[in-house]
Amino acid sequence: MTADRSAARPRSDSRQVEDDWDAHWGSFGDAAAENPANLYRLKLVLKELGYKPGPCRILDVGSGQGELTLAIAARYPELEVKGLEYSHSGVERALATAAKRGINAQFDQRDLMLDGAPDAESGWADIAICSEVLEHLDDPFTFLKNLVTYVRPGGTLIVTVPGGPRSALDRHIGHRRHYDLRSLRELLGRAGLKQISIARAGFPFFDLYRLTVVARGRALIADIDSSLEGRSARQRQAAIRTASRFFAKAFQFNLDDSPFGWQLLARATAPEAPAHSL
Fold it and tell me: How far from 41 is each of 36, 117, 119, 127, 184, CA to CA, in Å?
């Protein structure tokens, strides 16, 4: 039960703290690596990718500390895999993990709220992945328009976003909103994406997990903060690890496509025309 990945930009107003991902990765990064929800989303994305014969470039946008990017690179070592992330600390953690594991993946720091792809990377990706990012953004439309410039015409974009209620932890890490089928489809369509298909995954155990996170309220924030020390903090974190192991096993029985799932997984096709001409 922990923080999701984000490419949200820092702000000068009251949301500065909740968008400070350089600080968040230091506090919650270790817990994120054990988060059963992140592992479940990884399973969904890998299933959606399927087997990719021949040359293929995969771009993970909002790659955080690199778990998804590295899992893809490890599974497909013959492919070019790159992560883009706003947070400097996220990029540093990802590069350190890649070096430690001997995985060949590239990570770059970018702000997709400001710019699209530079000329050298325009249309670079055959497949782009944007997992648990859009819910953090005040202006997800601009982000998606800039993201699409990295994808070749006719290429694929895979998106995951949360549905269901927001928890205190969600708000703490900057979730502006959660999505439903209609709002996600509308956003992807406005960004010029075509052939949009969306599945609702995670019923029943992912939904139960999310309800547990909601019920824990703000107490969960302290439970998973790895910067806290002392016996009480260690006991709380041990309880979180036990719960995470339970849900990791239970998630094997989730339905990956159900009308009641609170995890949304979308697949769409990049426009044939360059994004700036739309």
Answer: 9, 26, 31, 17, 17
Q: Which residues pair with 266 in a beta bridge?
A: 159, 198
Q: What secondary structure does DSSP assign to 93-108, as a single string?
A: HHHHHHHHHT---EEE
User: Strands 57-61 and 263-269, how do they pair?
Assistant: unpaired
CA dihedral 112, 116, 117, 123 (to 10 degrees): 110
Confidence of residue 221 (pLDDT cuts 50, 70, 90): confident
CB 203 within 8 A of CB 254: yes
The predicted model scores a pTM of: 0.86
Token look-up 């806290």 returns 228
24 Cβ neighbours under 8 A, 6+ residues apart: 3, 173
User: In the predicted model, is pLDDT for residue 274 greater than 60?
Assistant: no
For 140-151, the pLDDT digits (tens) are: 999 999 999 999
**Domains in the chain and their CATH numbers?**
21-277 (3.40.50.150)
SS3 82: strand
